[in-house]
Design goal:
449 residues, 16 helices, binds NADPH dihydro-nicotinamide-adenine-dinucleotide phosphate
């Protein structure tokens, strides 16, 4: 797809020039700006107020050294990031990613996506993201703790319950959030809801662990319902085997689907009888081992090296839940040729632009991550509310709210897409639906931001 207006093409050119060598950030901005052309035409006030120019520029980006001592007594140095992208509708909110592939461009793409996602939830949260190129794989608990403490020692200067509230992402789960929270509390001598995804005995919310995966399936269910269909008796392929993938698999199974494949960055497992999720949880959540271990106790299952092959498995529903650009144009063509009816993104930007074009041209249901994986941050928003009230809702209450939020996001996307003449285009609907609230808030607040 190419731009129709000189105005948006010029803006895109400037983003590429001013943020060099950040391909993921360019990719995320390009997708949004392509959807903004009809919005700019109908809303000249946004152009006059420079809303589009401002929304692609982070309000603040913090880069810092994180030094820590490993188990051998050797000093290690990593780089930490926090990009505070947009605070028009609430405090910055978005996860922390620990993975060797992290760099400023990756964090900016994630922070940019977060603006629209958080807006879609209907909750008062701005967009931000952070992380480090630290690789948690193979590190001891002590090393993870010392890294997290050093990381937080600097990050604490820039965050706060009403300023910026980080959470988990790739490589950051309950263990890491615990160490980060403990260090923040020590430094500030205050017990506040400065992080979400906390343990249940110190301010966490029930259902937060499950929320992204569950929410993904609730959104997919809404999409399927528009075709009078559901998860019942559908074959489901899910990439990844982390937090999002595991709980997407759990909910897809509860809704009547059969999940036959999961993966990690080394390879994928295929179990035609349906994946034994308790075994996966034991391998990934308790023992922190590789997905390959699954075949040791499941002789009918197969393990294949390399993660891309997972998309060659015939399925009705595909849920990419690992990482960005994991599903390319070739994989999308294979999925379509194999009769896939719905693809919903659990990860952030897992489908390349070629893959998205392929799904849309084939007329299948396609949900972009900023809509379909918003259940995680939505439940983080609910955790913030519970912390402010110093009160805890039951699992049933949180789950009911999560379902309502995912239905609301689906409706917002559908309504915006319909209003702009492409009722089945969830990418257009999510971008416009997420943008308008933020744009109006920026407009109302004047040009300082
Ligand atoms: P986890 O760290 O729990 O799991 C990540 C999974 O993806 C692992 O199975 C990992 O395999 C795999 N993976 C990571 N990087 C790669 C890679 N380069 N190639 C292939 N596989 C890879 O992370 P989450 O489940 O929390 O996050 C997954 C995705 O969902 C991310 O895109 C994240 O941004 C997004 N997301 C997460 C939310 C949350 O609440 N946690 C909310 C919304 C979106 P391995 O173990 O081999 O590295």
């Amino acid at each position: 797809m190419s731009f129709k207006t000189e105005y948006m093409q010029d803006l895109m050119n400037r983003v590429e020039k001013n943020h060099p060598a950040q391909p993921e950030f360019h990719q995320a901005v390009r997708e949004v700006l392509l959807c903004m052309e009809p919005v700019a035409e109908r809303n000249p006030q946004y152009v006059e107020a420079g809303i589009f120019e401002r929304i692609v520029e982070p309000e603040r980006a913090i880069i810092f050294r994180v030094s820590w001592v490993d188990d051998a007594g050797k000093v290690q140095v990593n780089r930490g990031y926090r990009v505070q992208f947009n605070s028009a509708i609430g405090p910055y909110k978005g996860g922390l990613r620990l993975h060797p592939s992290v760099n400023l461009g990756v964090i900016k793409f994630l922070g940019f996506e977060q603006i629209f996602k958080n807006s879609l939830t209907g909750l008062p949260m701005g967009g931000g993201k952070g992380g480090s190129d630290f690789d948690p794989k193979g590190k001891s608990d002590g090393e993870i703790m010392r890294f997290c403490q050093s990381f937080m020692t600097e990050l604490a200067k820039h965050i706060g319950a009403d300023t910026d509230v980080p959470a988990g992402d790739i490589g950051v789960g309950a263990r890491e959030i615990g160490y980060l929270f403990g260090q923040y509390k020590r430094l500030r001598n205050e017990f506040t809801g400065v992080l979400t995804g906390k343990g249940l005995n110190y301010g966490g919310s029930l259902v937060r662990t499950q929320a992204t995966g569950y929410g993904l399936c609730y959104f997919t269910q809404e999409m399927l319902a528009t075709k009078n269909d559901s998860f019942k008796d559908k074959t489901v392929v899910i990439s990844g085997s982390g937090n999002v993938a595991i709980y997407a698999a759990e909910k897809a199974t509860q809704l009547g689907g059969k999940v036959v494949a999961l993966s990690d960055s080394n390879g994928y497992i295929y179990d035609a009888n349906g994946i034994d999720l308790d075994a996966v949880k034991e391998i990934k959540e308790v023992k922190r081992l590789r997905i390959k271990e699954y075949i040791a106790n499941h002789p009918n299952a197969e393990y294949h090296e390399g993660c891309k092959g997972i998309w060659t498995i015939k399925c009705d529903i595909a849920l990419p839940c690992a990482t960005q650009n994991e599903l390319d144009g070739e994989a999308a063509k294979t999925l379509v040729a194999n009769g896939v009816m719905a693809v919903a993104e659990g990860a952030n930007m897992p489908s390349t632009p070629e893959a998205v074009d392929t799904f849309q041209a084939a007329g299948i249901l396609f949900a972009p991550g900023k809509a379909s994986n918003a259940g995680g941050v939505a439940t983080s928003g609910l955790e913030m509310s519970q912390n402010s009230m110093r009160y805890s809702w039951t699992a049933e209450e949180v789950d009911a709210k999560l379902q309502d939020i995912m239905k609301h996001i689906h409706k917002t996307c559908k309504d915006a897409a319909t209003e702009y003449g492409e009722p089945n285009n969830y990418v257009l609907g999510a971008n416009i639906g997420g943008f308008l609230k933020v744009a109006d808030a920026m407009y109302a607040q004047g040009v300082a931001y």
